[in-house]
């Protein structure tokens, strides 16, 4: 759409996340974006072994989308 987007990311701490039968530690990463259409924000939980286990996104139209990791299969 030809818009310029400015993003800021910040690691704000650590927390625990319950995954199946075990608990994993995660970094809390918060992001804010601004463009001509408005502002959006993203809060993620990141584990060093499993990657992003939760992503909570709210866009500039106040719509919300949440991704969560619900299952892990070991191969």
Query: Structural class, from helix and strand content?
Result: mainly beta
Going across the major beta sheet, what is the strand order? 1-2-3-4-5
Mean pLDDT: 91
Say how many strands there are. Answer: 5
Q: Main sheet?
A: 5 strands, antiparallel
Helix content: under 10%
Taking all Cα atoms into account, the compactness measure Rg is 15 Å
**N/C terminus separation:** 42 Å
Number of helices: 0
Report the portion of residues in β strands: over 45%
Pick out the low-confidence regions. Answer: none
Query: Any idea what the shape is?
Result: elongated
Order of helices and strands: EEEEE
Descriptive report:
- This protein is mainly beta and 75 residues long.
- It has strands at residues 6-19, 22-35, 38-47, 51-58, 64-68.
- A five-stranded antiparallel sheet has the order 1-2-3-4-5, with no helix packed on it.
- The protein is elongated, with a radius of gyration of 15 Å.
Layout of SSEs?
Layout: E1 6-19, E2 22-35, E3 38-47, E4 51-58, E5 64-68
Report a brief summary of the structure:
This protein has 75 residues and is an all-beta fold. The protein is 0% helix and 68% strand.
Characteristic key phrases:
75 residues, mainly beta, elongated
